[in-house]
Amino acid sequence: MVHMNAFKKGAWLLSASLVLGTVLGACSTESKQSGASGAGAKQQLTVMLPNFEAENPPANSPVIQKLEELTQVDVDLQWVPSSSYEDKFNITLASGKLPQIMVVLGKSPSFINAARTGAFWELDPYLKDYPNLSKMNDIIKNNASIDGKTYGIYRARALGRNGVTIRKDWLEKLGLQEPKTIEEFYNVLKAFTKDDPDGNGKDDTYGLVASKFTGPWDNMQIWFGAPNKWGDDGKGGLMPAHETPEYMEALKFFRQIYSEGLVNKDFAVMDPTKLPDPFVNGKAGVMVDVADNAQRMDQKILEKDPNATGRVDVLQAMEGPKGLRDMPTSGYSGMIAISKSSVKTEEELKKVLHFLDQLNEPELQALLGNGIEGKQYEKKGDYVLPTTDKLALRDVQGLNQILMFIPEDKTLRVEPTPVREKVAQVQKANEQIVVANPGEPLISDVYAQKGPQLDNIINDARIKYIVGQIDEKGFADAVALWKSSGGDEYVKEINELYAALK
């Protein structure tokens, strides 16, 4: 638990928020904006952030008041509806009048351009001086960077999020162990298809359910040793994953399970929102997706039948020729950037970074993520019971948008189910085996212009190969088309950027 004195130590005093403005009526608007500080003057820290809820927390929210008390900072939150956030973000950038802190939802062209042209502080030289921010994950930090430079504190999400959701009851029915290798995975898919795992005497089940969402195929390719989008070309440069032999080995496996009926025949046209249905309805036994899908599948099955406990499990990646490997997520959802137009000096920057560092302390994470005990939740042993009072919840909703979870998420937890506990274990273990994409921080102009077209060529060819519409020569022809349609230009640019980054 972080004590008040820990927050006050080195804390900085900022101008009163609009709500408290009358207290400091003698302070002019100009002095607030310019950072001038006379006797008793405070500075104001303004934060622009999205809200995904219908209502904003009121300015006098007890949670916001507690935040200001713990940090000794008066915070002015500029809420923007999530649906119009990108538009507002671009308008604000164009105006040149930026708040000190801005939530950035992604590496959009406008943010990239603004960062490159000096609108935001480059933070790498300063992060080492802060107890929490200095513990940023190197892979996620690199993923969130632009040209290898850090222009915002990432908002962390599970890096090793992927997993294999499986019908545990089917494994038990057929006397099978959890698969751990690609070969064992294949044998389970075959048994789930051929050996009547639901015991109804009908040939009405299959192993893997997939949809037109490409994520599961991308993930399984990593098991086979294929690189994550870009791999080492053996000459110190990068080559696209689809040109590696490991990628083709994965394709051959996908083609085999499709031809043997171990995956649904309509995957290429299946709406991703329909993906859970065959699993929940007892038609399919395996999903390769984010591991937390398992807890959703478990919940859906229990909603149909409250007695249907213990039917779902979640596993790590399958071991392949290069050992245990898993495709990570980018590891973050947007970032928190600091404006140079309103934070003009290093001294001011360090104060902002101190505030952001404080928000990663357990007490502040719990405050902004869970609220206040007795109002937004009650304690139940090591866990919490959130209130259902909508008025009380309004005081905290949306405030998690300024949480970064560095070095980890320390918000309070509801009591987990066995499946939820297993999901957490899998995601934690996955962090040791994820394969980073070395091209993640490289911003390609060619890809900005031709990316969708280039991606479609390879994705279409992959599907056609899996379903047997083309052979290896047909796939090679698609790669040649990719190259002549801008792929060669893209690879050349990526390698120039990669060499400059190194």
From TrEMBL:
Q: Which UniProt keywords apply?
A: Cell membrane, Lipoprotein, Membrane, Palmitate, Signal
InterPro entries, A to Z: Bact_solute-bd_prot1, SBP
Q: What is this protein called?
A: Lipoprotein LipO
Q: Which organism is it from?
A: Paenibacillus silvae
Q: Which gene encodes it?
A: lipO
